[in-house]
TrEMBL record:
Keywords for the protein's UniProt record, in alphabetical order: Oxidoreductase, Signal
Top-level lineage group: Bacteria
Identification of the protein by name: Trans-1,2-dihydrobenzene-1,2-diol dehydrogenase
Protein's UniProt keywords contain Transmembrane helix: no
Gene3D superfamilies noted in UniProt: Dihydrodipicolinate Reductase, domain 2, NAD(P)-binding Rossmann-like Domain
Length: 243
């Protein structure tokens, strides 16, 4: 019987979403948690106590260079993703990065180039691509079972109370509902239409900090139209703009 080698994972960042990843990894026969790194050792220790993580690391450089880590899962705020993913790839690690993988197309293109140059695996953690219902719907579309797609409509939102300085509303941390929630609707449209839009119209409300907390996007593709929306349900918006 052949024993598959387990992928040894290191977790970068000890926030809420990292807990979800670590809870799930315990059920995988092909992966194991090797180390967790956070800005402070106390935060890493508190996180690791929940999962019996072998190694606790203060700072991220030690994780990039760890000899017993094959892949790094990045679970930090959006604006840090590019820098951290680039450092991990350059260090020879495979990378799974929380969505959005970057905050600009240019940064994403650079990461793709780095992954190719270093022969490393790079992936955005868009879990919705792997939902059984989504996979089945995609199969039906590809086979022609439900006909040709003319429209995609997707909405996503959940309650986020406005708190001054909170990451969700902090422009310095790439806050706003588009990158937190709207990215899921964009991903669904891209997955099923599989084209680049020719034209898009965006309507949005802004929170007091200047980031959007209610956004609707209409995108015209060569062969279809997508109507997408995202919202912080408890948002305190103060104006609406059409662009």
């Amino acid at each position: 019987m052949t024993v598959e080698k387990k992928v040894r994972w290191g977790v970068l960042g000890a926030g809420r979403i990292a807990h979800t990843f670590c809870k799930d990894i315990q059920h995988s026969q092909f992966a194991e948690l090797t180390a967790v790194a956070s800005r402070t050792k106390s935060a890493a220790q508190q996180f690791a106590d929940n999962y019996k993580t072998p190694e606790i690391l203060e700072g991220y450089q030690a994780l990039y260079l760890h000899p017993n880590v094959d892949a790094i899962y990045i679970a930090t705020p959006h604006n840090f993703h590019f820098e951290q993913a680039a450092a991990a790839l350059k260090a020879g690690k495979h990378v799974l990065c929380e969505k959005p993988i970057t905050v600009s197309p240019e940064q994403c293109e650079q990461l793709i180039q780095l992954a190719g140059e270093n022969n490393r695996f790079l992936m955005e953690g868009m879990w919705s691509y792997f939902l059984p219902t989504i996979l089945k719907a995609k199969e039906w579309v590809n086979s022609g079972r439900i006909g040709k797609i003319h429209q995609v409509k997707a909405d996503f939102g959940y309650p986020v109370t406005f708190v001054e300085g909170d990451r969700m509303y902090n422009p310095a941390l790439a806050g706003g509902c588009l990158l937190d929630m709207g990215i899921y609707t964009l991903a669904i449209a891209q997955y099923f239409i599989n084209q680049l839009p020719d034209l898009s119209l965006v309507s949005h409300k802004l929170a007091k900090t200047g980031v959007e907390d209610d956004l609707t996007l209409i995108a015209q593709y060569p062969d279809a139209t997508a109507t997408l929306a995202c919202v912080n349900a408890k948002a305190n918006a103060n104006k609406r703009m059409l662009t």
